[in-house]
TrEMBL record:
It comes from Simiaoa sunii. Residues 5-154 form the Phosphotyrosine protein phosphatase I domain. Belongs to the low molecular weight phosphotyrosine protein phosphatase family. SMART domains: LMWPc. The active site is at residues 11, 17, 130. It comes from the Bacteria. One of its GO terms (molecular function) is protein tyrosine phosphatase activity. It is an enzyme of class 3 (hydrolase). This is protein-tyrosine-phosphatase.
């Protein structure tokens, strides 16, 4: 069996966009019978949602949006991305340009070209807006689904998944 494809989705607080991406991607690969090929997680660039070492759960409106689509994120807690994650993961996928800047600062650069904005896989330079500020959780879900679907297609087209 090939090595697992290790994917880390990253946003500012790890309570809205990146956990949405984590669990949407887990559902997509499960539905395609590819779950055994992946290790998928999410993290934050900030510590704002982490108190005394314990991360906050997924923000209730984000959790509700996932549930509307039959996706559970039960047990997920925010965590901050670390420099060590650069070596651990194959793909470090940010939600917006600010996330990318912060990721590059935390990682000390991107010598292996692992840092990518999610919607770039869908051929877009758009950021995925933070629903914490916009209140548009449905729009965020749709953007995340578009990006994750395109990312999975990218992996399939580039021979990263043996099926």
């Amino acid at each position: 069996m090939q090595d697992k494809i290790k994917v880390l989705f990253i946003c500012h607080g790890n309570i809205c966009r990146s956990p949405m991406a984590e669990f949407v991607m887990k559902k997509l690969v499960s539905d395609a019978n590819l779950a055994d090929h992946f290790q998928i997680a999410s993290a934050a660039t900030s510590t704002e949602e982490i108190w005394n070492g314990i991360g906050n759960p997924v923000y209730p409106p984000a959790k509700a949006e996932l549930a509307r689509h039959g996706i559970s994120c039960e047990g997920k807690r925010a965590r901050q991305v670390t420099k060590a994650d650069y070596a651990e993961y194959d793909y470090l996928i940010g939600m917006d340009s600010a996330n990318i800047r912060n990721m590059l600062r935390i990682f000390g650069g991107d010598p292996d070209g692992k840092v990518v904005r999610l919607l770039s896989y869908a051929g877009s330079e758009r950021d995925i807006s933070d629903p914490w500020y916009t209140g548009e959780f449905g729009t965020t879900y749709n953007d995340v689904l578009e990006g994750c679907t395109a990312f999975l297609r990218y992996l399939q087209q580039n021979g990263r998944i043996d099926t």
